[in-house]
Amino acid sequence: MIIRSWGIVMITKTINQKAWLLVLPVLLVVSLNAIIPLMTVVNYSIQDTFSPGVFFFEGTKWYQEVLSSPRFHSALGRQLLYTGIILLIEIPLGVAVALAMPRKGPWVSVCLVLMALPLLIPWNVVGAMWNIFALPDIGLLGYGLNWLGFDYNYTQQPLAAWFTIILMDVWHWTSLVVLLAYAGLSSIPDAYFQAAKIDGAGSFAVFRYIQLPKMKRVLIIALLLRFMDSFMVYTEPFVLTGGGPGNSTTFLSIDLVKAAIGEFNLGIAAAMSILYFLMTLLVCWVFYTVMMRGEDS
User: How far apart are CA 165 and CA 127, in angstroms?
Assistant: First the structure.
């Protein structure tokens, strides 16, 4: 739009918001898919039922029981420990592998395909594969460790079960961090490296002052994705160990399913689900806020 006033020509741009109408159906479907199950769980978390269609209002009773339960605290502690170990291993390892990958030539495609292969395998298949792979008698990993002199049996030893689950997750999901870090490294202009070479900067200085700052955004995405995935992990450890031996690998997600399906304690399970959801949401928000502090400055 052109506006002429007192001999001055001003050009203003009209913003068309009608494009949101194309996205509205998708937003509506996603909202319904998210809100309806959430409201159903909230309904069960404040009521009790003994037969279909008969409900009794309980208020915050189930929340109080969950928060005061040693079982909940133990499962949450195991979940946080598992998530912390996964992040400490996979993020540095993924960055290191991305730095070692070639930037040009035919080997780039080969490396990218190899990195993407573990991500294409379904979660339940990964658990089943590692279940066979880690068996102490016939599995390649289990038999090999015992042959080397290690007393390894993940079906009876809690430490061995933790080692197997962590190793399985590192094998399955480090590739995601590698691909994200490699994308961040590939987007850095060559002018930065040329200037560093002229200044005589070493490899560590290039990584510290050029590569790491330029990868900040993709590393934030990698950290958030891996936190959410590892904090809500269920299928792989359940297929591999079923939460055992004992309760040593019964994470919060597995304990939640046991309460809902195994024990049919819908009130406890619903309250645990809401608390689980709120904890994940809160930690993600805090983590993102801290990581993005000073980003706009």
Answer: 9
How many residues can be counted in the chain? 297
SS3 57: strand
> How far, in Å, CA of 99 to CA of 69, rounded?
45
C-alpha span between 75 and 257 (Å, rounded): 12
Alpha-carbon distance of 38 to 76, in angstroms, equals 21
Tell me the angle at which helices 216-231 and 158-186 cross, rounded to the nearest 10 degrees: 150
The pair of three-digit structure tokens given for residue 268, joined into one six-digit string = 């406890």
**Whether residue 245 has a cis bond before it, omega within 30° of 0:** yes
For residue 265, the model assigns a pLDDT of 86
Residue written as tokens 């289990």? 142
In this prediction, residue 8 carries a pLDDT of 55
The CATH homologous superfamily to which domain 70-291 belongs is: MetI-like (1.10.3720.10)
- Average model confidence (pLDDT) across the chain: 86
pLDDT at 288 over 80: no
Say which residues have a Cβ less than 8 Å from residue 173's Cβ, sequence separation at least 6: 86, 90, 118, 119, 226, 229, 230
Task: Confirm if 61 and 265 have CB atoms less than 8 A apart.
Answer: no
From first CA to last CA, the distance across the chain in angstroms is 34
- In this prediction, residues 260-276 reach a mean pLDDT of 89
Domain positions in the chain are 23-59, 70-291
Q: What is the pLDDT of residues 122-150, one digit of tens each?
A: 888 999 999 999 998 889 999 999 999 99
* 240 within 8 A of 17, measured Cβ to Cβ: no
Q: Show the tokens assigned to 169.
A: 């997750």
Give the 3-state DSSP-derived string for 173-231, with helices as H, strands as E and coil as C: HHHHHHHHHHHHHHCCCHHHHHHHHHHCCCHHHHHHHHHHHHCHHHHHHHHHHHHHHHH
**139, 195 Cβ separation under 8 angstroms:** no
> Three-state SS for 101?
coil
